[in-house]
Amino acid sequence: MGNRWFVAIALSLAVAAAAVAASDVSFDFREAVGGFGIGRESFDRPVDLVRDRDENIYVLDQGNNRVQVLDRRGRFLKEWGGRGFSHGFLDTPNAIAFDRAAGALFVVDTGNHRVQKFDLKGKFLMSFGRLGSSDGDFNKPMDLVVDRNGNLYIADTGNNRIQKFDSSGKFLQSWGKFARRRGVELNNPVSLAYAEEGFGQIYVLNSPECRVQKYDMDGNLLKEWPMHAKGEGALCGPSRIRIEPRKYTVYIADTENDRVILFDKEGEPLGSLKEGKKGFRKPSGLFVDISFGEDLLVADTGNHLIQTFRRTR
Question: Rounded CA gap, 237 and 209, in Å?
């Protein structure tokens, strides 16, 4: 199918309060791109995305096992990947992260139990990891983030732990279910985010409990809170967490409940966002860009769309 590009500037979306909101937030819907398909400017379950300084969008198109790159107007620029296990190929990838300092992209290649690194043109640079439970091994990794020093933190979901690597893929440390320190245990961590506040912090989403856990850079637990209000009756499942880098607002793609929910850095609810061009269906990827205001890009997986919003309050 051809390009499906919808633009609706200044369509204001009032954001419903979640529980007792500390303050209301609101967004303007900006644009949507995509639609189901295997061709250019189409997607089959887009699950994550990043945007560069030129506003090009790198979409992790899971069903097509590829990275597809679009310009700021939603026009096709390039793609790479394809299903396979050789270098540069992918099997059910789940997350993509941008190392701005290195000008490189990291992709969590979940089905191949590894992480691959590419330049911005799609050239394969390196990979690390294999199926296993030893240091540096993975069992269905789901997400990753890059800190200010270029270190990588991987949600090693099947092994119930977070692993830390340097920029070359060398294992540095881990924490999780089998850690000796009380309070750092993890059960099915599905997503994580990095905040530069202080010496740095790592936020982790545990899927079965639907809890946010905040750690320092050595894996010491600092704070935790539930994603859903008591008695809300919300479903729990794999979701995505990202951090706005100024006020450290916490954004969560609450996948099973078809919405994006927001918290302040202490876990106080701020509100939720449920629709743009269409109501969300299983949103699973987020990117917060503060280059031109505060833009929120949502990988609306069930609708096979990328929807973009501008925060107004």
Answer: 9
Look at residue 171 and tell me whether its pLDDT is greater than 90. yes
pLDDT at residue 182, rounded to an integer: 55
Q: Name the 3-class secondary structure at 226.
A: strand
**Residue 109 host element (H or E):** strand 104-109
Alpha helices in 73-130 (DSSP H): none
Q: Is the pLDDT of residue 303 over 90?
A: yes
Torsional sign, CA 55, 60, 61, 67 = positive
Ramachandran angles phi, psi of 167, nearest 5°: -65, -15
pLDDT of 179 over the 90 cut: no
**Residue 12 in this model has a pLDDT that exceeds 70:** no
Domain ranges of the chain: 13-274
- pLDDT tens-digit series, residues 57-90: 999 999 999 999 999 999 999 999 999 999 999 9
Q: Does domain 13-274 have CATH number 2.120.10.30?
A: yes
The Cα–Cα gap between 238 and 174 comes to 21
Q: Which residues contact 212 (CB under 8 A, 6 or more apart)?
A: 203, 204, 205, 224, 225, 226, 227, 241, 250, 252, 263, 267
Give the count of beta carbons closer than 10 Å to the beta carbon of residue 256: 14
DSSP per residue, 135-154: TT-BSS--EEEE-TTS-EEE
Distance between CA atoms of 88 and 125, rounded to whole angstroms? 9
